[in-house]
């Protein structure tokens, strides 16, 4: 590499340019630090929401377990009805229970699909953020 000799004026011009670059870089760093502070606060809020999401998953699991129990209870009532000779038609009580059970199942299925969509979206965004932060600077 050959370095050409410069005049003092040309060297001084280089220095002015370099100082200008340094000032721009310092402004960038100041802005980045402000953005970093905001990001830390946003991540703390996101962590709170992720923990809340986990609590919601626990509640959903409890709802599914409760639904499973009510299905088993309803099935036992149906089996008892069959054992007592009611093979063709359900009595009104069992029919009403079945309609209620069907509605509970439908609502649980809708809730499960909403939770699944939300969960997959949120976890994909966490993975994207993790990958972006893990990339070298």
UniProtKB/TrEMBL annotation:
Protein name as annotated: Chromosome partition protein Smc
Species in which this protein is naturally found: Novipirellula galeiformis
């Amino acid at each position: 590499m050959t370095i050409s000799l410069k005049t003092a004026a040309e060297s001084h011009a280089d220095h002015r340019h370099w100082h200008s670059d340094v000032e721009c870089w310092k402004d960038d760093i100041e802005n980045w630090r402000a953005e970093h502070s905001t990001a830390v606060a946003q991540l703390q809020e996101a962590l709170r929401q992720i923990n809340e999401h986990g609590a919601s998953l626990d509640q959903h699991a409890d709802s599914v377990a409760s639904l499973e129990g009510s299905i088993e209870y309803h099935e036992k009532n149906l089996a008892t009805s069959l054992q007592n000779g009611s093979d063709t038609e359900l009595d009104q009580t069992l029919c009403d229970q079945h309609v209620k059970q069907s509605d509970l199942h439908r609502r649980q299925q809708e809730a499960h699909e909403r939770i699944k969509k939300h969960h997959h979206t949120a976890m994909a965004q966490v993975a994207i953020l993790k990958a972006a932060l893990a990339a070298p600077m």
